[in-house]
Amino acid sequence: MAVTPTAALVQTLNGIQFGFILFMIASGLTVILGILDVLNLAHGELFSLGAYTAIGVFGFIIGIIGPPGDGVVGTAVFILAVLAAVLVTAAILLPVGTLFEAVFLRQIYDRDQVYQLVLTFTLLLILLDVKKFIWGDSSIRTDAVYSAINAIPTSELVGLNYPTYNVFVILVGSAVVAGLFWFFERTKTGRIIRATAIDREMATAIGVSTDRVFTLVFALGAFLAGFAGAMAVPPTSATLEMGTNPLVLSFVVIVIGGLGSLRGAFVGALLVGVIRSWMITLYPPGEIAAPFAIMALILLVKPEGLFGTWGETA
Amino acid sequence: MYWDTPMKRTTTDHDSEGIGRRQLLSAVGGSAVAAALAGCSTLLSDGEAADQGGQSGGEISDEPIQAGLLTFTRGAPGVLGIQAQRGAELAVQRINEAGGIGGQREIELDVVNEGSNPLDSYNQFIEEGKEVTFGPISSGTHSQIAPEVEKNEVINVSTDGTVTTLYEETVPDPTYSFRFQNYDIMEVVTMAREAVERIGADNISTVAGVNPGYSFGEDEMRVFTQAIQKLTGAEVVYEGFPELGASDMANHITSINNEEPDVTFSSLWGGDVTTFVRQANANNMFENTTVFGTTLYSAAGDVPGDALAGTDIYSGSRNYYWGLPALGNWQPGRELFDAATQQEGVTVPTAHYMSGYGAVTAWATAVEKAIDLLGTYPSQEQIAQVLEGHGFFTPAGYHNIAEDHQGASNSFAGKMVYDDDLGAARLEDVNTYAATETAPPPGVTGSDWLDSWSA
């Protein structure tokens, strides 16, 4: 199949956009794994919970401000409202994460990892039933965001046929990446978290409350999952099973990047996104296999992943 | 609005007196149950329906018939499965209101989610002593349970599970396994013919496909390729198979935009249709191709109006489209539509609604016929014998279960548009295709039949 330069560019952008969504999910998973040493099987359900919650929050906030108004100001207000809705959704997930860590996980840190897997799988099933109880069996969606943002001209201005919502995801995703690295590299809380990850006993000895750090990290993971869910849902629908595939792909991403490495999650997510995108372009049947093939290759040549584990840098 | 058009009676005063009970019953299959399932029970005078279940001669117990339905009751596939469930429930309700099978035996329908272990759920039905099972929806599930149906010797009338090879390879000589709905080759050939009808064979030189990434989607694309190449000689320029429930179809859409095929074929269904149409519209895909799909209309109640605006989509609707014949001219269709839209989870009844309704109707009318012939309640083997070659009527029209155990009915296809008044999508300018145009003759495999077409 001959691919035109424009199609090649759009496919690459598709891959980057998908990669940023993957990073938003995988970052929470890898931070929890890197610092708490817990593989959170319920992370996909937190992502899904964010998607479901976002539909209500979008409806509420956009119901107040209405559709985008004319002109730059009207457009800017609408985009800010969407961003606010995404942040509110993510914030709603904070107490959920706090509750999970403080009530359930904290009781079993000293036990074998298999207990953590069983517990987080139990939480996965509980969240599945909670979603079913609240939102029912059928898929739900929001119509307020995707079309409205796509109506804002962006790529058309440079002669490209590319949905504005995807541009929005790339820009917001870039901001999330920058924000996370700034948080872990530049803020005191971020450094304390990293210090706890590097040496838990030493951190405790110098007065760091590991309980608080662990709760904060798990809540942060839930926040990122909720954020990702809110960003991912407008072009599609929220369904009960939607947490499964992102969880599996997030595992792939963090294995490629290095278990617990934020930097690795970023590179891994973009790698998976772009390679998957090109695989669909050049050999569509390889779509599902491509991410796993990359993972297998990395495990063979660099078993610790591209960036190793959480350490001196994020 | 056309669906609010006052119902035009299809009978005259003379009819109700002149045709009377006997002729009407004879016309629809010989019993009040058949009349009720055909949507004609209101043509009987008050009280007659409940008195005319069947001619059992009092040799039939009044023990309820335990029946099981395997269908998707949640998640993305629930968009189809719940339709089938509601259709089956309405059929059962009508049977019971008409006095039950043979005028004695009401049906108790147990609905179980097809889910991840459908074979276990099916076996549970058998262990519980179900006298008949209906479903499944999935082709994969059907391939699993059909051999079990033959082992257990308990009739199963599938609602869907429309994989072409089921009665060609998986269970080539079935006795107890039947399928009501038009199967894959029928709906795919319908859409190949529809593409030629709408665009013209001379204008189709390239085709692409975006189909679900499992056996159903691969089967449909393979059959479509074979059919469209015979009809037009077109070249396939792209085939994409997104996994079920995929949230991102942008890559497939970009590939189609790159190739600009004359026709894009799709067997996406349920929530995947909504995702595909929304993202395709956002990427201006409909400026580059016309989409023909077998099951796109399954998302009629889900796909939003803004996503369909400016699209160029033609969808099949298997063996039932609620708007044809026009409801104002078709009392059985009108009554079914009204009853269906009052059920939970049914915005408009789609083909999968008829899958459930028709599967129950096929079995129930066959049992009634067997009772009529035998004067007693028939065995599983006797019901199976009657089902072979059994013709019956539903509000969708006339159906036949052929000797190969495959149902054959007319197929429908039309342009998919959004209807603000309906609050759902509808089909516009609907074409009807006879089974002889879409299905191979008995004893011939789908592939051999397509191969035999002259170019």
Report on the architecture of this protein.
The complex is a heterodimer of chains A (314) and B (455). Chain A is mainly alpha-helical. Chain A has one domain (5-301). In chain A, 73% of the residues lie in helices and 0% in strands. Chain A has twelve helices and no strands. Chain A has helices spanning 5-36, 43-65, 71-104, 113-135, 146-150, 164-186, 188-198, 200-205, 210-232, 244-257, 262-282, 289-301. The longest helix of chain A is centred in the first third of the chain and has 34 residues, at 71-104. The mean pLDDT of chain A is 90. Chain B is α/β, with parallel strands linked by helices and 455 residues long. Chain B folds into two domains: 13-182 and 325-408, Response regulator (Rossmann fold); 185-317 and 411-452, Rossmann fold (3-Layer(aba) Sandwich), CATH 3.40.50.2300. Chain B contains 18 helices and 15 strands. In chain B, the strands form three sheets. A seven-stranded mixed β-sheet of chain B has the order 7-6-8-9-10-14-15, sandwiched between helices. A five-stranded parallel β-sheet of chain B has the order 2-1-3-4-5, with helices on both faces. In chain B, helix 6 (118-127) packs parallel to helix 7, helix 10 (215-232) packs parallel to helix 18 (446-452) and helix 15 crosses helix 16 (380-387). Chain B is globular and about 70 Å long. The termini of chain B are far apart. The model of chain B is unreliable at 1-19 and 43-58 (pLDDT under 50). Chain A: This is Branched-chain amino acid ABC transporter permease.
